[in-house]
Amino acid sequence: MNRYELGGLIARRDGLDASRLSAGLRADSTLPGALDVRLDSRATQRKLSTTLRGARRFLAGA
Predict the structure, then answer these.
(1) Which top-rank group of organisms is this from (predicted)?
(2) Residue 45: which domain range?
(3) Total domains, the chain
């Protein structure tokens, strides 16, 4: 999932118009920050008895 998709899911969950989000390449931005941001939760999942939900499932309220 990329930042644009995540933003759209958050906007829809919060009742905002996701069509107002503009897409673009992070590499083309002058804003500081990492180009690649990944979350690996495998170690955390091994220690929990609760199943971690992915962003799509979590933001859908499932």
Answers:
(1) Bacteria
(2) 3-59
(3) 1
Query: 8 Cβ partners below 8 Å, 6+ apart?
Result: 18, 21
Residue 39's pLDDT is what?
A: 87
Mean pLDDT, contiguous 10-residue spans, the chain (62 residues): 92 95 91 88 92 88 58
Sign of CA dihedral 4, 6, 12, 14: negative
Of 37, 31, 4, the C-alpha closest to 19 is 4
The size of the chain, in residues, is 62
- Structure-token pair, residue 51: 């199943």
Q: Which residues contact 27 (CB under 8 A, 6 or more apart)?
A: 35
Give the global pTM.
0.71
